[in-house]
Design a protein that fits this description.
This protein is an alpha/beta fold. The chain contains 13 helices and five strands.
Length: about 250
């Protein structure tokens, strides 16, 4: 079981999260609570905490101030923010200090489950005692969990991927996600999607199992001529020529 601390100044919300959500079923144990940021830092100071679920707006110390101090201390604790405010200035500050995710109040059961299932996967990969090796590229991606999550979404859904769905996945505004992706990867979200589509198309063409128009549909192009133009722009040759060369 991974160790979880919940910090929220609203007793009913904090009590509800601690008492009624089935944490153990997804691999977590609540080991502490806090009603403000200062208490949160005191509770996690013993070094036993793996994850902090923390409200952004709290008295004495805000969630942003908490995660800033954790960042300065090189804390390995993963943090998820609760917020009743769709204010992306908070999001920008939090990302800078390494927050893993954002959940809007009132928090949905499904959102909690999804967020903590993802966190558990990251903790499992971080822990060398657990089975499964992590590649160098995985480690690089995990340095920024938001970018990692978006890229994995694109790779799994390249046929019908949208910026809006990617933004929903990381609980952010699509416009902000687009800017953040460009800032962190030095490429546009649309360019990354295009790259994945073309590389997948190339793999499919090499198998010799599908005709070019079938590959076109499989990577999300309803018009085969548009697919051919896009493929030529990326590889410098048409799908037919690529297949002959490979």
């Amino acid at each position: 079981m991974y160790k979880l601390v919940i910090a929220d100044d609203e007793y009913e919300i904090r009590h509800g999260l601690v008492t009624y959500f089935p944490w153990e079923e997804i691999g977590f144990e609540v080991i502490g609570q806090a009603s403000n940021g200062k208490e949160a830092l005191e509770v996690i100071s013993d070094g036993n905490t793996d994850v902090l679920l923390c409200d952004i707006q709290m008295p004495i110390m805000t969630g942003i101030e908490v995660i800033k101090q954790m960042h300065q201390q090189n804390s390995s604790i993963m943090t998820i923010f609760l917020s009743g405010y769709q204010d992306f200035q908070y999001a920008h500050s939090a990302i800078k200090y390494g927050v893993k995710n954002f959940l809007l109040k009132p928090t949905k059961f499904s959102d909690l489950t999804e967020a903590f299932t993802q966190i558990k996967k990251e903790l499992d990969q971080r822990n060398p005692k657990l089975p499964g090796m992590v590649s160098t590229s995985d480690i690089t991606n995990h340095n920024d969990p938001i970018i990692y999550k978006i890229k994995e979404y694109v790779k799994s859904n390249f046929k019908s991927v949208t910026l809006e769905e990617a933004a929903q996945l990381v609980f952010m505004n699509p416009h902000y996600v687009s800017k953040y992706f460009k800032q962190k990867t030095d490429e546009n979200f649309s360019d990354f999607v295009f790259q994945i589509k073309m590389e997948e198309a190339a793999k499919l063409l090499k198998t010799m199992q599908y005709k070019a128009y079938e590959v076109s549909e499989m990577v999300g192009y309803s018009n085969a001529k548009n697919f051919t133009r896009a493929f030529r722009r990326y590889f410098g040759v048409s799908p037919k020529e690529y297949r002959l060369l490979h």
